[in-house]
Each structure stands twice: as structure tokens, then as C-alpha cells.
């Protein structure tokens, strides 16, 4: 039995911050839950998240905004829909395997992204922050980008406005090279298409305003070693090994006692 | 100065260091308040800006983004950012977002000032 006075204990305890419930807690490295069999699950478990401070390339702030003029939907309703059906609004050939608990603080999602040249990238994201009108995803080591992206909705002039805003650097010199030669444009296009898909789903013919600002032109050469965790290279090597894994599969099963 | 629900105050600790006191909420709409406070805190010889978060009441991911932008601005001027007054919750957010690797965190203003005044 406790002899503590609960009222006194409550008074002595520091008040919880108003935002405490919205942030991921106690995340040191990423852990993935169950993923579908068809997904390529690489480069997520055990990785740390990385922000713009840890990245290599120039720092960009990308903002895409679209007015949902004519749609009778509140910001909270848009964000609820977006969280529930995030994958639906992504451009083709890209897969977001949502966590079982949905987009909630601290959850980890697996991504299988289509790269130019039919290459694939297996990586993930941490749900860093989520409230009723916004959520933020943060990338792990090895991802193309080091940073976070916030999806939000607000009312402006009586109209619900949806915004996607990323603050990012490429993670390593190889990704930066790709970014210089078209990757940056493709990435911006990806998020414009996402905003368009969401607006169309809500019955609005979209006109997306896009603003791309280079916040820091300097590259952080001391972070060039991030290349050792490059998820695209690792996924490529894994893909090259697919025929060998197929050939070995019957023997592996037999050893494990499977028919 | 008040911008949205953020109030900032600037104090000069020495010719090389200034403090920005935060009171209220740090969000994406704090951009102008932060930029103005930084401009007032950043003198010709300022080498360190000390951020006092003891009055911080709310911060979302947009607010963390604003701090990264402030960091870039300070680094461009060859200045350091250090912080104190973060409660356990906000200290964890700095660790989670790995902002603590670029902004030194101290328990008290005296400790932050000692770091700020170090050559």
C-alpha cells in the first residue's frame, strides 16, 4: 500500500506539455512490425532517424499547397482521411506499407519506392509527430533524404487548404548527384502529384502552388560517410542476389523441415 | 515582440553572446518572431546565441523546422547556438530529432553562458 498523498504528488509533478501526446517517444532505433509478404523489407530495422543536421547535400524547403475550394471538408477530416489512406494518394510504383496502428506518433512504416531506371528503394519512415490537423514523417539513415515532411491542413479565408512541407538534405554524395541530375525535380513532382491526387479524391480540380527554396547551399562534406548506409545501393545488391535466393530456397526449406 | 503566440525577448550577455528568451508556442507561424529576435541578438561580434526555453509552452514539428532554419542562419554567420531551460519532454524531442547534435544543451543559464563565453 502506498502512503503517498496522490493530490500532493500530482501538485509536485511537472505539468505535461500540451504537445506531449503528439510526439514519438523513446525512439532510439527503428523497429518494424509485421509487413506484407510482397514487400521488400530492408534498411529499416535498427536504423536511427536523421534530420537535416545529419544530411549531406544542400538543404531544401519544399512547400506544396492546394486549396480544396468547393469541398465541404474540415482540416481535421482531411487529415483523418490522409492518415487512413496515405498510400492511395501516392504516385504509381511507390508503396507505403502503413503500420498496423496507423499513422500515430512513434509508429514506423515501410516504403518501397520506384527509382528511375526501374530501380527500387526499400526504406522506411518514423511518424515523428501527429495531431488532428497535421502529421510529420522523419527519414532513417540510408534513405535518399535526411529530414522530415509535414502534411497539414488549415482553414484560410473559409477554404480548407492542404499543405505538404519538407525540410530536407540528401543523405550522401551519391544521392546528391542524383538530386542534381533530375532527382530534385522528380521529388518535387512526387509531392505535387500526391497533393493533386488528394484534391481530386475530394472532388476538387487541383491547382497546386509549389515553392522550392534552397535554405542552405553548403554541402556537409563531413557527412559524406553516410554513403555506407545508402539504401538504394543495398536494395540494388539485394535485388542482384534474388536468383541465388530462389535457387537456394528449396534447400533452406528442407533444412527447416518444411515440405 | 509577439508573433502568433510566441513572445521573444533579447538580452545581451556580453559583446560575444546574446540570449533569446522564448515564451509561448514555437510553431511554423513563429518564423517572423524568430527571425526578428535573431536579427536583434546578432551583433557584429556575436559568436554565440543562447536560446532560453524555460518559457516554452508548446512546440510542434513546424517549430522544430524553424529552429533548424535558425541554426542554418547562425552557422552562416559562424555563430553557435546553445540552449537551456528545456524540460524533460523538450529535451527528448531535441534528442529524437537529433537537434542536440548541433545545438548544445545546458541545464542553466550560467552553464550556457560559460560555454558561450568560452574562447
Describe the structure.
The complex is a heterodimer of chains A (259) and B (119). Chain A has 259 residues and is an alpha+beta fold. Chain A has a domain at 50-217: START domain (Alpha-D-Glucose-1,6-Bisphosphate, Chain A, domain 4, 2-Layer Sandwich), CATH 3.30.530. Chain A contains 5 helices and 8 strands. Chain A has helices spanning 6-12, 75-84, 173-201, 231-240, 242-255, and strands at 59-67, 95-97, 108-114, 120-130, 134-138, 145-156, 159-170, 209-216. Chain A has an 8-stranded antiparallel sheet with strand order 2-3-4-5-6-7-1-8, with helices on both faces. In chain A, a hairpin with a 2-residue loop joins strand 6 (145-156) and strand 7. Chain A starts with 5 loop residues before the first helix and ends with a helix. Chain B contains 4 helices and 6 strands. A 6-stranded mixed sheet of chain B has the order 1-2-3-4-5-6, with helices on both faces. With 119 residues, chain B is α/β, with parallel strands linked by helices. Helix content of chain B is 38%, strand content 34%. Chain B has one domain (2-117): STAS domain (Transcription Regulator spoIIAA, 2-Layer Sandwich), CATH 3.30.750.24. Chain B has helices at residues 31-41, 61-76, 88-96, 109-117, and strands spanning 2-3, 6-14, 17-26, 48-59, 80-84, 104-106. Chain B is globular and about 35 Å long. Chain A binds chain B through residues 14, 16-20, 22-27, 48-54, 59, 61, 128-129, 131, 134, 136, 138, 148, 150, 152, 165, 167, 215-216, and chain B through 28, 57-62, 64-65, 68-69, 71-72, 75-76, 87-90, 92-93, 96-99, 101-102.
Amino acid at each position: 500500500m502506498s502512503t503517498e498523498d496522490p493530490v500532493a504528488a500530482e501538485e509536485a509533478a511537472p505539468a505535461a506539455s500540451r504537445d506531449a501526446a503528439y510526439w514519438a517517444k523513446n525512439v532510439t532505433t527503428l523497429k518494424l512490425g509485421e509487413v506484407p509478404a510482397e514487400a521488400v523489407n530492408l534498411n529499416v530495422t535498427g536504423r536511427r532517424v536523421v534530420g537535416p543536421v545529419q544530411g549531406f547535400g544542400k538543404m531544401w524547403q519544399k512547400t506544396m499547397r492546394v486549396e480544396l475550394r468547393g469541398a465541404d471538408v474540415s482540416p481535421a477530416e482531411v487529415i483523418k482521411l490522409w492518415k487512413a489512406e496515405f498510400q492511395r494518394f501516392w504516385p504509381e510504383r511507390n508503396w507505403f506499407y502503413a503500420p498496423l496502428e496507423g499513422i500515430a506518433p512513434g509508429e514506423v512504416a515501410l516504403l518501397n519506392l520506384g527509382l528511375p531506371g526501374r530501380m527500387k528503394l526499400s526504406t522506411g519512415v518514423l511518424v515523428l509527430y501527429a495531431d488532428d490537423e497535421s502529421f510529420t514523417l522523419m527519414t532513417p539513415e540510408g534513405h535518399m533524404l535526411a529530414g522530415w515532411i509535414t502534411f497539414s491542413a488549415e482553414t484560410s479565408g473559409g477554404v480548407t487548404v492542404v499543405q505538404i512541407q519538407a525540410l530536407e538534405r540528401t543523405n550522401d554524395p551519391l544521392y546528391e548527384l542524383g538530386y542534381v541530375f533530375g532527382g530534385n525535380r522528380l521529388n518535387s513532382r512526387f509531392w505535387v502529384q500526391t497533393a493533386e491526387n488528394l484534391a481530386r479524391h475530394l472532388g476538387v480540380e487541383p491547382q497546386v502552388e509549389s515553392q522550392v527554396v534552397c535554405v542552405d547551399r553548403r554541402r556537409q562534406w563531413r557527412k559524406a560517410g553516410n554513403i555506407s548506409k545508402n539504401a538504394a545501393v543495398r536494395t540494388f545488391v539485394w535485388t542482384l542476389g534474388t536468383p541465388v535466393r530462389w535457387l537456394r530456397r528449396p534447400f533452406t526449406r528442407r533444412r527447416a523441415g518444411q515440405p | 515582440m509577439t508573433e502568433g503566440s510566441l513572445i521573444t525577448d533579447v538580452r545581451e550577455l556580453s559583446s560575444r553572446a546574446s540570449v533569446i528568451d522564448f515564451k509561448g508556442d514555437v510553431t511554423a507561424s513563429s518564423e517572423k518572431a524568430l527571425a526578428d529576435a535573431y536579427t536583434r541578438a546578432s551583433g557584429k561580434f556575436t559568436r554565440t546565441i543562447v536560446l532560453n526555453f524555460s518559457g516554452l509552452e508548446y512546440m510542434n514539428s513546424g517549430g522544430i523546422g524553424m529552429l533548424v532554419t535558425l541554426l542554418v542562419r547562425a552557422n552562416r554567420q559562424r555563430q553557435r547556438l546553445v540552449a537551456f531551460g528545456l524540460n524533460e519532454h523538450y529535451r527528448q524531442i531535441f534528442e529524437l530529432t537529433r537537434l542536440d547534435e548541433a545545438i548544445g544543451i545546458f541545464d542553466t543559464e550560467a552553464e550556457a553562458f560559460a560555454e558561450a563565453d568560452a574562447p
